[in-house]
Write a structure and sequence with these properties.
Length: 323
């Protein structure tokens, strides 16, 4: 493809469309953002002496705590809400479910990508413990783990934290991904994501013994990447110890390398997995927030990406920092 021409691509994971529109290279000084929430200790509710352990704590690790999980003080879903369905023209599901927040560190200024391996594994193992508990509860069909970092990433609190939401139904992108993974398995007798490891050679960012990082063909976001185990695993608890270590170290390496490429920027990452869907292949998607969504994304659900994934992969490999 002539990189000067636009190209409409289908994301094989979801079926969403992305318009790949080659644009000017992002320069770090253009994307540098001042994140007041990260630097401001005042009124932070996640400090050791300010977190509401009495009313919000679910669990913590070590004494004094080095990782803590609390109930979200302002939840989207609640376990005390009866699960009810409204059918018909105006259909709805009541807001049953659970919202939790994992405070990754007591240090307000420690960034996720700066944590050492031991601390990163503590983060991951805590998530696994919480997911197991949430999946054991009545009616829960999907547990979603995601991180918002920076103002453009939707983080209202600068202290590093991860969110966990347990849903009574498979909704949105995970449902689409699982449906397409099952269809692909039925038609090809192979895993969609394992086949992507063979077909995405032009867009592989790097790989370890256990994990591969890819800039997906149909990337919806500039600088989007996907981390996936080489072995078929549908649920994060089923990762072996080396896979866990490779995963957290690779995730941090991508974030650090993106900072080198784009400067300080907001980002999101989401863990895509489901305990009960064996055809799903667990993976993490990371989205640098280099631009805002506009009319075409909101009105047509078609994404405009001004960074060609192949070009991003090339620049990433040139800039890549060690794991």
């Amino acid at each position: 493809m002539d990189v000067q021409e636009s190209n409409i691509r289908t994301d094989y994971r979801t079926g969403y469309y992305s318009i790949i529109v080659p644009g000017r290279t992002h320069r770090p000084e253009e994307l540098e953002v001042k994140d007041e929430a990260s630097s401001n200790l005042e009124d932070c509710p996640f400090e050791r002496d300010t977190v509401d352990q009495k009313n919000l704590e679910i669990m913590h690790v070590n004494e004094p705590w080095t990782t803590m999980v609390i109930r979200n003080k302002f939840p989207e879903l609640s376990g005390s809400t009866p699960l009810e369905y409204e059918k018909g023209f105006f259909s709805s599901i009541s807001g049953y479910g659970y919202n939790e927040v994992e405070i990754e560190t007591p240090n307000h200024f420690e960034k996720f990508e700066e944590m050492d391996t031991k601390k990163s594994l503590e983060w991951l193992n805590t998530l696994i413990e919480r997911e197991e508990d949430l999946y054991s509860r009545n009616y829960i069909k999907h547990v979603m783990v995601f991180k918002n970092s920076g103002a453009k990433g939707g983080a209202s609190i600068g202290h590093s934290h991860t969110q966990i939401i347990a849903w009574p139904e498979l909704l949105g992108t995970p449902a689409l991904e699982i449906e397409r993974a099952k269809k692909y398995e039925n038609e090809n007798n192979s895993c969609l994501y394992e086949d992507s490891l063979k077909k995405e050679s032009e867009r592989i960012l790097f790989e370890t013994e256990k994990i591969t990082a890819i800039a997906p063909y149909g990337s919806r976001i500039a600088g989007e990447s996907m981390l996936l185990p080489k072995r078929h695993v549908n649920y994060i608890m089923d990762l072996d110890e080396q896979e866990k270590e490779d995963l957290v170290e690779a995730l941090k390496s991508i974030i650090r390398t993106n900072i080198k490429l784009f400067g300080k920027h907001s980002y999101n990452f989401v863990i895509h997995e489901n305990r009960n869907e064996k055809d799903y292949h667990m993976h993490i998607e990371l989205y640098p927030r280099l631009a805002d969504f506009a009319g075409i994304e909101l009105g047509q659900n078609v994404f405009v990406n001004t960074t060609v994934p192949e070009e991003y992969a090339k620049k990433f490999k040139e800039a890549k920092l060690s794991i």
